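In this section we walk through a basic example: taking a raw amino acid sequence and producing a predicted 3D structure, encoded as discrete structure tokens. The instruction is simple. Fold the sequence below.
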Amino acid sequence: MSKLTKNQKAALEKYDSHKQYLLSEACSIVKDITFTKFDSTVELSANLGVDPRKANQMIRGVVTLPHGTGKVVKVLALCTPDKEAEATAAGADYVGLDDYIEKIKGGWTDIDVIVCTPSVMGKVGALGRILGPRGLMPNPKTGTVTMQIGDAVKAVKGGKIDFKVDKTGIIHTGIGKVSFSAQQLYENAAAVLNEISKLKPQSLKGTYMKSAAICSTMSAGIKVDLKAFLNSAE
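The resulting token sequence is shown next.
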């Protein structure tokens, strides 16, 4: 077994890796055990008792983090000329259509979110092979395909994120940065967990939300007492 670094030893003294902590406690601990020189992303993972291969158990949702994600979100608005001014005024970093579609075909994906109007989905759909694996494909369910393109840009810039369960039944999503206060992390995490809770499939038998944990880019996971959280949220 490899020797623990000084930072890893210090982290292990601050919490018990086998214990489940209240969500508020977990959000404090993750700040205490992160020793990176950069502002690490804090991530929430939720293990669900669903089978994502079944269409009615494919959990996907949208939530606005009360305190945003802590990172600058680069938004590309793909739209017809009549919508360009609206997208630009709302704060889109890149606005246009054919030029950007050609850029993406050439391998450019230096963006975090793409929003578009329904009328251009035919052109955008052709980029599925490039955008799909990177999670960049606009989708009406997440509000990124809409005529209200200005509102969509503002929402994304203001902390709106979408999440979905992976093939192992786990949702991973960023909930802020280590520089956030523990209270801000708590409120962001609570918003995500409450939204996941609402999406429980009616057909599901057995436990829906099995476990959850909070970690930062370089820290170990801190187990969350889900039962206590869900009871207090009711």
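Looking at the output, two observations stand out. The longest strand covers residues 41-48. DSSP finds nine helices and nine strands in the chain. In the next section we compare this with other chains.
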